[in-house]
Fold this sequence. Notes:
- By secondary structure, this protein is an all-alpha fold.
- The chain has one domain.
- It has six helices and no strands.
- It has helices at 14-19, 27-32, 37-60, 63-67, 69-91, 102-105.
- Helix 3 packs antiparallel against helix 5 (69-91).
- It starts with 13 loop residues before the first helix and ends in a 5-residue tail after the last helix.
- The model has no long low-confidence stretch (mean pLDDT 88).
Amino acid sequence: MDQPSGIPSPHKNTLMAVLAYLGILVVIPLIVAKGDPFVKFHIKQGLVLVIIELAMWALAMTMLGWQLMPLVQIVNLGVLILAVIGIVNAVQGKEKELPLVGSFARNFNF
């Protein structure tokens, strides 16, 4: 029986795709489900977001980071918004590139 429009098909591993956007938890789908093309798409985007988060954390730990804290907070808010968009796309069964980071995600090959 066909699924109604907008409802993800049951063969897609939605939970693993959602975990890909939850920071360091991207490691779980990377280990468990990287063979699934749907999950792999979301893992790549989640990895870009984690790299941005780690870069902002590293910058915040420096002396310069204290002076740039408003910028760091704005970038972190942007990462949170992109993660929410990615989660919504994953739950809806979509493979839609995130703004700004989707093009970087294509560069991951595993």
